[in-house]
Each structure stands twice: as C-alpha cells, then as structure tokens.
Amino acid sequence: MNYEMREEVFWMIQDLHKKGWSITAIAEEMQVSWPTAKKYTEELPEKQTRPKRKSKLDPYKDYIKRRIEEGTTNCEVLFDELQEKGYTGRKTILKDFVTPFRKAPGKQGIPRYETGPGEQAQVDWMDCGIREMDGSRKRTYGFIMTMSYSRKRFLCFTRNMKMNTFLRCMVQAFEYYGGIPRKVLFDNMKTVVQQRLKKEIILTSEFNDFAFYYGFRVDLCQPGKPRTKGKVENSVKYVRNNFLQRKHEPSLDAWNEDALAWLLTVANYKPNQTTGVAPDERFKEEQDKLQPITGIKPYTVTKWEKRVVNDGYISIKSKKYSVPSRPSLKEVRIRWIDRDTFEVWDHKDKITEYVVDINPDKTVVYRPEHLPKIKGTPDEGDMGLATSPHVQKAPDVEVRSLDYYENLKEEESDYASNR
Question: What's the fold here for domain 120-292?
Fold first, then answer.
C-alpha cells in the first residue's frame, strides 16, 4: 500500500489502541499481521522522500539565522537585505524558511461542537477483551450509540463486529430511541467504509443501502482525530470505568439485560457532567425531532457473498453465470434478494441480476450483452452446455451423390492398372 493508505491505517490503529483494544483484536479488525499492528501502535510509518533540490536561498541561510537571532523576523526587511546581497529567489521561499523560527502562539482550547436536537448521533465499538461467556472464553464487543444533543446512550454486547451484527445493533438503537437522527457519525470502521482517499470516500454497498433505507446521512471522522466524535468516546470510557467494573453473570444475554437496566438507572438517569442535565430529561427535547421509525418495516439484513470472476463467469450453486466483461472486474459481491434471486455488484454499483436456473442439464447461464459478440455465438440468452460461448460454427460441406464417389473409385482403379 502507498504511504497515504499506510498513514490511514496507522491512525485507525491508534484510535483502537487508545480505546484499549488488544494487538490481536486490532490485527483481526484491520486485517493486518500482528507485528504490523504492534508497530503501528508505536510509530508512524516513514514516508519515502526524494532528495531535496538545492534552493536559491541556501547561500543566505546563515545570514538569515544571524538576523533572526538579532530579533529580525520581518520577511519584508529580510527580503530587501537579501536582494542587496544578490538574492534572485522569491519571497515565498523566504517566508517558509523564517516561519518555524517565529514564536508560536499560545495553545488555544478547542471549542466544543454542539448539534441541535435530533440532528446527530455518534457510534463506536469497544473491545471488552476475552471474557468467560456462556461456558467458554470468548472475545466480547460493545456497541455504543450516543445522541449528540441529549447524551442519551444505547449499549449492547455482541460476539463479533460483522456486518449482519452491526446492522442489527443499529436497528436496536433506533428502536430504543424511538426514532432516527438525521445524521450518524462513525469512525472509519470497515463495515461502513469501503475505501477512503483524500478526495473520495466510498461506503460499502451494504451499509449505503441500509442508510438509504432508514433515511439518515453518514458522516465520517478524520483519521487520527478522535475528538471529532468525543461524545461517544466519552461514553466508551464511561462504560469501561463503570459498567464493566460491576459484576455480571457470564452470559451474553445477561450482559445485555444488565446493560438495559444500567442505562435506565445510571447512564441516562444521572446528570451529565457537560450539560448538567440527565440525558433522559434532555432527550425529551429531541425525541420529537427524530425521524419517525413507526411504520417502517424492519430492515432485512441481506446476505452478501464474494465471488471471484474467472474468464467472465462466476460460480453459483454449481452453475456458471456470466458478468459484464471488464478487465478490472476481478471480484464481485452477490446480494441475495430471496432464496432464488441474486444481484451482482462491483465495489459500489449493481451490474446485473439473475434468477437461479433450475434446469439440471444447464451448467452455463450466458447473456450476450456481457461479452463481445463473436461470430458463431448463439443469440439466445442462455446456453445449456458447459462450453465456451465463443465456439465457431463448422464450415459448410458440399452435398454430393453416391454416383460421384463410384465414378471416382473407377477412375482410380483404371489409373492403377495402367501404371
């Protein structure tokens, strides 16, 4: 990966490490090796840089430093003096050199970003470590959603952070609040973000579909800036320092029952340190501002599967199905609409749809629009043989009577006897 991607991974690992995640859990979440996860919790990967070119300012830097020591940092003055000494460069280079030597301004407090009632919620995961749970030692995770205005929290515990689990937690949170905020803020979790570059953010198709279904906007934090979602970060610390310090039966169901009771009697009942008001009390001001969830049919967590594209085909239930011909299309995702219908998606768009073919004699399902037309390719939509759709037609053969071959045989016999 390039430096930009390594830096992105570094800040995401730093966020998880600050939350108390173990190196093993970080490696599993970020899909990197254990040594890489360990290294990125300690230091930023080095950027490969080219040797610096010589600057027109180089011969004058010693003079500039002496003038700075004397107390002169005004670039207009320095620029005039350097020109008298023969400097032919621009003032911009001079400013860039002098700026680090100027006295830095005092550090200012970061203003707290507040949102209106019902405008935003913040979401995060926390790693609770390996716990004795339901008769065996298992890693346990906590899902937390915090309403930004009221600070009302929702908490539930799971055994994994997979997409299906994540979406079910989101639905449970919306039902707990009785509505849907207009925006939800996430960090760069892999269930939400497919790819993030400086000028483009691509959401996973599954979560993009979920957000569209419930009508909320997805906001994302800048990597390495956890204060962007400080409200839910504080909730994570609160859960770790309060709920996890209490005794609970070693069962996932018991933990979730205790979590609902804790939210009711402690987390959302006691006054918040920032607002001075209990989250439940302040939530009354924003409950009516949430988008209604009543009447919305619960979102069905769709089953998604990955498939490798091999020679323009993917394998589904022992049959081959064609996909659009693209050199860059190496892998697709399958979205099952029901048990007999599936959609084929690239990294962000739907590219085709099929109904599962039940003909036992057919092993290849081919659509002509998916591959370039080649002479001899049938015009029908599907083929029944497990052969390439590019088989050429046999050449036309002249039809002759049997008398032609009898005469030919006699001529060959006469020719042999005359020799």
Answer: Nucleotidyltransferase; domain 5 (3.30.420)
Where in the chain is CATH 3.30.420.10? 120-292
Q: Tokens at residue 124, please?
A: 């995060």
Copy the structure tokens of residue 164.
């299906």
pLDDT in tens, the chain (419 residues): 566 677 778 888 888 888 888 888 888 888 888 988 888 888 766 655 566 678 888 888 889 988 888 778 888 878 888 888 888 888 888 888 888 887 655 554 455 567 899 999 999 999 999 999 988 898 999 999 999 999 999 999 999 999 889 999 999 999 999 999 999 999 888 889 887 766 678 888 889 889 998 999 999 887 666 566 788 889 999 999 889 988 899 999 999 999 999 999 999 999 998 889 999 999 999 999 999 998 888 787 666 788 999 888 999 988 999 998 888 888 998 888 777 888 898 877 888 999 998 888 888 998 888 875 554 545 444 444 444 444 445 556 566 666 666 666 565 555 555 55
